[in-house]
Queue: 2 jobs
Job 1
Amino acid sequence: MRARKRENNGSGVAKTTGWSPWQSLPTPVRISPEVLAETLAGGQAFRWKRVHDQPGVWQGVWAKMVARARVNEACELEWSAPETMAARFAPALETYFAADVNFAALADQLPWRTDIILEERIRAQPALRLLKQPFGETLLAFLCSSAKRIPHIAQICEKMAARFGEPVWDDVKALPTWPRLAEISEQDLQGCGLGYRARFIHDTARLLAQERDWEERLPHAPYAQAHEWLTALPGVGPKIADCVLLFGAAKYEAFPVDTWILQAMAKRYGLHGWRPAQVAQFGRAHFGPLAGLAQQFLFAGERAGK
DNA sequence: GAGCAGGTTTCCT
DNA sequence: AGGAAACCTGCT
């Protein structure tokens, strides 16, 4: 547990620049502090942390970006970035937060009028968002996720970035890219605490190294095709594939079924004893083409413990 | 200290 | 087909 490095090291040598002033996005994003927390730290992304001495402020890393986020008095999302990268930042943040997507309008299209459970969940977490993270690193993060809790996944990601990632700013490093991962031995990956997942990541990296443009093409493929390609990778089953497509490719048909959703669907919808594949099929049929958004509402509700 | 976790694969009926 | 067990690691 290292103290996070401050922007001014007081040595007279400008090691880093400071943070830009807070600003809202060109397309304003309305969100509550609670929903921002659920969005950044609820299992979609694994590299956002609360800034120690600044209540309500989050700091996150993706691709070669580092940013801070908070909610202002007008309930708008505001961001700040290191001065050196602030210029190219607004578009990157717009993409990351899918600012152009009106999630309230999408939620309105869900069948909440005939589904009281969904209605209650949507009301409890208005303006819940689905992030659009870089596809490759979303795949990496979720390859680490099997049978792991969020903090542990975050810890593994930090280790991989620290050991194998490119420097982004100050002491912050990016997650290693897939071409980079292909150069790393399974044993070195093991050193990040990956356990049996190290082999999956290693084998996936080797496989992708032979598939030209795979990473670039997949997000453009239709959902079913993309899902099929993903599950062909070692260590990627239906659940992880759906998470990667939902949080890293904005494919809202994806309906990840984890133990929380399994539990929620059993308890709320009476699907006792159903297997994950059956629940996934039910979800897509019942909730429609935005099933993934419905999943996120149910997931957040279930995690909130009700 | 045994048990378990936001799965997947493998190996059994 | 469908159901266990095994797989690593860190946390309770």
Job 2
Amino acid sequence: MIARNPSLTEQVMAHLRERIAGGEFEGGRIPSEAKLASVLGVSRTTVRDALSRLEHDGSIYRKQGAGTFVNEPGLQIRSRLEEIWSYEQVLRDHGYTPSVRVLGVLEEAADAAIASDLGIAPADPVIAMEKLFLEDDDPVVLTMNRIPAAYLHDDFAESASEPLYEFVEAHCDRHLAYYLSEIVPVALDDHQAALLDEPAGTPAICFEEIGFDQSNAPIVRASSIFRDDLLRFRLIRRKTGA
Amino acid sequence: MIARNPSLTEQVMAHLRERIAGGEFEGGRIPSEAKLASVLGVSRTTVRDALSRLEHDGSIYRKQGAGTFVNEPGLQIRSRLEEIWSYEQVLRDHGYTPSVRVLGVLEEAADAAIASDLGIAPADPVIAMEKLFLEDDDPVVLTMNRIPAAYLHDDFAESASEPLYEFVEAHCDRHLAYYLSEIVPVALDDHQAALLDEPAGTPAICFEEIGFDQSNAPIVRASSIFRDDLLRFRLIRRKTGA
DNA sequence: AAGTGGTCTAGACCACTAT
DNA sequence: TAGTGGTCTAGACCACTTC
């Protein structure tokens, strides 16, 4: 019934996702792990692995002694905060068909805070790229990325519209391994307000992030500001321990 | 009341956390799973379980074929967004010794939005409880909880300082199973500003949440506002697939 | 080629929830 | 008490990284 290469666990996940989407589970109750294992012809360990991953991504939850259950449809989270990698993808996950507008690419001197975050000397040159992500004509996300100029060795200006990790891959000799992000409240300044088409002073969520390569060296400092009315982050918090 | 018997997996986690905190791992490299299993005298499955949980909470990361590594100290996240359950606990995780001040408990008529969120009729009575969490004399979190009055059957006013889930457990015939939360940017109004000791209009992060019981019935509507300078949420985003 | 994490099996017993 | 998820064992082979 089940063959290789997408791992067995992934196939079990896909199978369960389909049945969940099809509303097959009476009362939201998913069959027991033992039952699933015997029906699908895999070990209980594999089933447990699949269920753990579905639980982790918010599709289901488990209650010891009671069973495994589907999360209510209204609770399905479209993009898990920890897994965001490309804002274009986030917008697609929300049902948008995003476009990207590169607002500017220029070289500037790093101020003290940026230099410190990027591990370079103050006033060292950085490339600043400002981009706007839109749904139709509505601006949704405004990002500013700053990369030390020393890391860039190509003619890169034409690639600015690529997702950042592809850009870094292509034009630096390294690749982005992870981001450290802070969720910061801001009030839109005149510049941001004009670009996001909202009044100046509007409160907004900003992700302040530093992107690192595999050696934990900072590569990029990014700020992203969101139109709260068009893109709002949600999460489910479920009591685990105790 | 609670007899804790730490599982093997939890003991392995604790052991590794200690060695990580002690900086024992040369170059951040953690011994292989097989090595840990034989040294600790447990199966590799148990070691893998412990490592998976440490990876999930951001303490370590794994690279297939290469090894398992400690996350940089600066990347340690003190409280994972999805696991917040009590703001007192969040503050303790940040090294604070929090106190709680109950600002008011009163009955009011639900407005349309609140009634809709709680599944009751507009103007139905709700109990509104406003609380402030402080570190020393600094206000850090301001929360407003609203529970339909019909759900409360006891004399409850004196218990308002308890964590909300304990309060619900004790005074309603149900208990909180999960929250659905939205991260919302706000500007502090005069009331909030005075309580949080910041200028009115300061941008802040607000969690707008609805708490549900096991039957997916809404029990409580909560708003929590944070002092950005005292409590900032961070997260690590690491590329997983592809 | 050697060593690592990733996947998978087939069992066993325990802790908890429901009825 | 029956059934569920939680923990744990002792193996096996595969995919990938590093040298």
